[in-house]
């Protein structure tokens, strides 16, 4: 382990809430969400109990990839407002007890970034990965022909309009003489640029960053040692200059990313040797955003009862053992790239059990905007700002406008042309309707967050003992609280043995008779443990 400064104390109690800014709240009626819209909805977040918000990229961009193609790291896109508007949002949130994180796209820029425009016309500029033309005049595999006067081709990170910043190569290859070492001039300049960008925003009151594609920096880096060294260097700098700030990684392999310098890593639908199996084995029911290369699997939160929590539990145990308390793992309900919980055949009645699990497991919970009311993944939407990645992988369905009330566009915007169509379902859930119904999912999520926040044993630091990794899923937190979750549609039972449950702190469809706990379909319960 590297000798990093301990994570800021506030992080252990974080309940993350991810906001896709263009779809959250539109204050000026142009159809696109903005900072003022978020500020106007802070009461919802405070009432819900979340204390940390992270925003998808909000920098200047041509929006070929929804803002992940950054053209200016130091200024926000006008469609969201101004830098001052962001500063006001951060200040207002902070006064309400909510920290704000930005999304840092570290590995690539937009092809419209001034850095790239200069590099495309200057053969001596090594800000990006450039290869010369081949003997036949063609470009090397995976490279894109230069758009400027510079001959040769550049390496993209994702879409062709996202040129990869040059952080060097981990290994030399005589057949590819363009490979530069990680300490070459271009890679050093890019590491310095990351410090400049982070320092700029942290100095304005932001609390940290979620880092996009954090594992992508050094190329041909099979064990990620080169990339890890960069983040280790940046973490030591952060510890010295902004000790209360945090770095969250989009890496999907906490046992590698946290020792490298991140405070937290997410379990994701990709990452690590199992390509995100831990998360997919929980939520992915084969609908919504589906990569055709994924092996078919029965997820645990499915009515069929064919799945298992074991892939997740084993991945969490491996990662936790590797971290040894040096950082955290975060478990999201969904995100802007992955299906919402309410997707395909999954129905609203199945969601309470999912939240009962997510908010009582010793990971940092990350709630994707709208999941707290059970917003639906909307299928078959048109490609919007690069949302379609494959025949079964349309991210737009997870990015539809927040559903606030029964007004036009569900209260998101007064525009006739919102960023994406609102869910057309006549029974679509709304915040207003669920606020008025204390039996709603929204009220349950609020109660679960409050329970977690006021009960240390149910938080990130409490121990967990798995009694039964099946249906029902049964575990004890901190030696004091029994959690029972049954995501399948049928009734199921388990003999508790030595564990004696007491009063129910939160329960639906779970009964205890002697040493046997019986859970109805989609039931869950959280109980005191006696003795």
Q: What is the number of helices?
A: 12
Portion of residues within helices: 10-25%
Poorly predicted regions are none
Q: Specify Rg, calculated over alpha carbons.
A: 23 Å
Mean pLDDT: 97
- Domain module tally: 3
Strand content: 15-25%
CATH superfamily of the largest domain: Glycosidases
CATH topology of the largest domain, by name, is TIM Barrel
CATH architecture of the largest domain: Alpha-Beta Barrel
Lateral strand order in the biggest sheet: 1-2-5-9-10-11-12-13
Write down the overall geometry.
globular
Oligomer: single chain
Secondary structure tally: strands: 21
Q: What kind of sheet is the major sheet?
A: 8 strands, parallel, barrel
Structural class: alpha/beta
Family: Belongs to the glycosyl hydrolase 13 family.
InterPro entries: GH, GH13_cat_dom, O16G_dom_2
GO molecular function: alpha-amylase activity
Domain Glycosyl hydrolase family 13 catalytic: 18-399
Keywords:
Immunoglobulin-like; GH; eight-stranded parallel beta barrel; Oligo-1,6-glucosidase, domain 2; 3 domains; globular; Oligo-1,6-glucosidase; alpha-amylase activity; TIM Barrel; alpha/beta; 21 strands; O16G_dom_2; 531 residues
Structural description of this entry:
- It contains twelve helices and 21 strands.
- The chain is of the alpha/beta class and 531 residues long.
- The protein has three domains: 9-107 and 184-454, Glycosidases (TIM Barrel, Alpha-Beta Barrel), CATH 3.20.20; 108-164, Oligo-1,6-glucosidase, domain 2 (Alpha-Beta Complex), CATH 3.90.400; 464-530, Immunoglobulin-like (Sandwich).
- A hairpin with a 3-residue loop joins β17 and β18.
- The chain is globular, with a radius of gyration of 23 Å.
- The mean pLDDT is 97.
């Amino acid at each position: 382990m590297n000798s990093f400064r301990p994570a800021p104390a506030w992080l252990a109690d974080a309940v993350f809430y991810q906001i896709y800014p263009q779809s959250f709240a539109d204050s000026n009626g142009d159809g696109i969400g903005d900072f003022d819209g978020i500020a106007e909805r802070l009461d919802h977040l405070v009432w819900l109990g979340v204390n940390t918000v992270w925003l998808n990229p909000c920098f200047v961009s041509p929006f070929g990839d929804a803002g992940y193609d950054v053209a200016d790291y130091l200024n926000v896109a006008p469609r969201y407002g101004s830098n001052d508007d962001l500063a006001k949002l951060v200040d207002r949130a902070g006064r309400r007890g909510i920290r704000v994180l930005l999304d840092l796209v570290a590995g690539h820029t937009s092809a419209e970034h001034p850095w790239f425009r200069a590099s495309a016309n200057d053969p001596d500029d090594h800000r990006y990965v450039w290869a010369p033309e081949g003997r036949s005049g063609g470009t090397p595999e995976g490279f894109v022909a230069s758009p400027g006067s510079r001959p040769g081709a550049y390496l993209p990170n994702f879409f062709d309009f996202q040129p990869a910043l040059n952080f060097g190569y981990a290994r030399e290859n005589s057949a590819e003489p363009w490979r530069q070492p990680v300490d070459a001039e271009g890679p050093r300049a890019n590491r310095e640029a990351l410090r400049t960008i982070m320092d700029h925003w942290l100095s304005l009151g932001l609390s940290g960053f979620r880092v996009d594609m954090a594992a992508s920096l050094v190329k041909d880096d099979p064990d990620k040692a080169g990339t890890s060294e960069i983040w280790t260097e940046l973490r030591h700098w952060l510890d010295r200059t902004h000790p209360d700030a945090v770095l969250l990684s989009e890496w999907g392999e906490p046992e590698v990313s946290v020792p490298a310098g991140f405070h937290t890593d997410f379990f994701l639908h990709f990452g690590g040797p199992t390509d995100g199996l831990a998360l997919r084995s929980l939520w992915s029911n084969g609908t919504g955003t589906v990569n055709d290369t994924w092996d078919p699997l029965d997820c645990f939160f499915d009515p069929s009862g064919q799945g298992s929590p074991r892939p997740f539990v084993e991945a969490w145990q491996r990662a936790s053992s590797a971290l040894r308390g040096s950082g955290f793992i975060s478990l999201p309900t969904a995100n802007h790239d992955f299906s919402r919980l309410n997707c395909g055949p999954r129905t609203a009645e199945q969601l309470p059990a999912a939240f009962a699990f997510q908010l009582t497991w010793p990971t940092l919970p990350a709630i994707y905007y709208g999941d707290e009311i059970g917003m639906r993944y909307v299928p078959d939407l048109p490609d919007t700002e690069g949302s379609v990645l494959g025949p079964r992988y349309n991210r737009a369905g997870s990015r539809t406008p927040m559903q606030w009330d029964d007004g036009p566009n569900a209260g998101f915007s007064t525009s006739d042309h919102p960023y994406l169509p609102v869910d057309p379902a006549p029974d679509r859930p709304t915040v207003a309707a669920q606020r008025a119904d204390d039996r709603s999912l929204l009220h349950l999520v609020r109660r679960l967050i409050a329970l977690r926040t006021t009960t240390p044993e149910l938080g990130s630091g409490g121990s967990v003992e798995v009694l039964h990794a099946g249906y029902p899923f049964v575990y004890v937190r901190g030696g004091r609280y029994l959690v029972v979750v049954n995501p399948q549609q049928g009734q199921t039972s388990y003999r508790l043995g030595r564990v004696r449950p007491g009063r129910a702190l939160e329960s639906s469809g779970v009964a205890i008779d002697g040493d046997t706990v019986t859970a109805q379909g989609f039931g869950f319960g959280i109980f005191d443990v006696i003795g």
